[in-house]
2,3-diaminopropionate biosynthesis protein SbnA
Amino acid sequence: MDSVGTLSPFNSPTVKLDRLFDAPGIEIFAKLDLLQLSGSTKERTAGSLIDSFMKSGQLQSGGMVIESTSGNLGIALSRQCVVRGIKFVAVVDENANKSALDIMRAYGATVDLVVNQPDGNKLAARRQRVAQLLAENPGSVTTNQYGSLHNPAAHFSSTMPEIMEAVDGRLDMLFVATSTTGTILGCQNYVREHGLSTKLIAVDAMGSVLFGGESGNRRLPGLGAGIVPELALQAKPDRVFRIPEIDMVRGCRTLARREGILAGASTGAIVSAMGQLLPEIPQGSRIAFLVHDSGVPYLLSVYNDDWVREQLGEEPDSVEALQREELSAP
């Protein structure tokens, strides 16, 4: 399938939200990257990474890509590889969504599951397995989403300019979830090169070591990291929020129930961070955030009450939310 016309194949809608928060003096915009063909903003990353290898001649049709992934990049690489006639091996851990793995397999990818890490560091174990598979498969390549400059380049060339065009060039604050930090680094590079005053807010998971965080157990994929990726050394957000997983769940459900947007855990974390920062944001401000991925792969976790109670030991909805629902019930 070839793209037709002059628009970027990655251009997703940016919409204004009026129901998410009671903040009439603040304009809130959402960049709907859950509408990418593979269901997440990683479609941009995967396209940039694969294109760079093919342009350099290091990768050709019939070749093999091996990459460590928590889910979304694996889905995007599976799709990008299949349309180029390339084999793809996704190295995942037990935190990966079962539905995400099923989607990868549906595209024809091989899923290699790493289990029982002695030190509990899932990312480090996945990267070690990638190195082993590269040695076993001469001529194969890894796209190295954690260190390749083609990761942030995708967001410098598409994500940030698309957002700025959608808001007529005026944006006070952008919230971005972080893992490899490629997205926020690409946005940061764009802001600096164009002399913008936009503040970049990094949203990280509690238990992630990014930006000086303390390592801890994390059950939801796609947000945070167990080791500091190479790209993170260049990322300098204006502010960092660390969000507990139960607040990611509640943020996802708030976004779904108030705006009809079914998003993944990282976007739920952003909703939580915005809610915390909202009282400090001046009236008349314009803020935006990335809806990084679809909530469909999270139906059995984030949107499943039993999973939340069993895995997180919390009630899925806050007491305040339950009280509001009771008051509005007929």
In short: Residues 1-7, 325-330 have pLDDT under 50 and may be disordered.
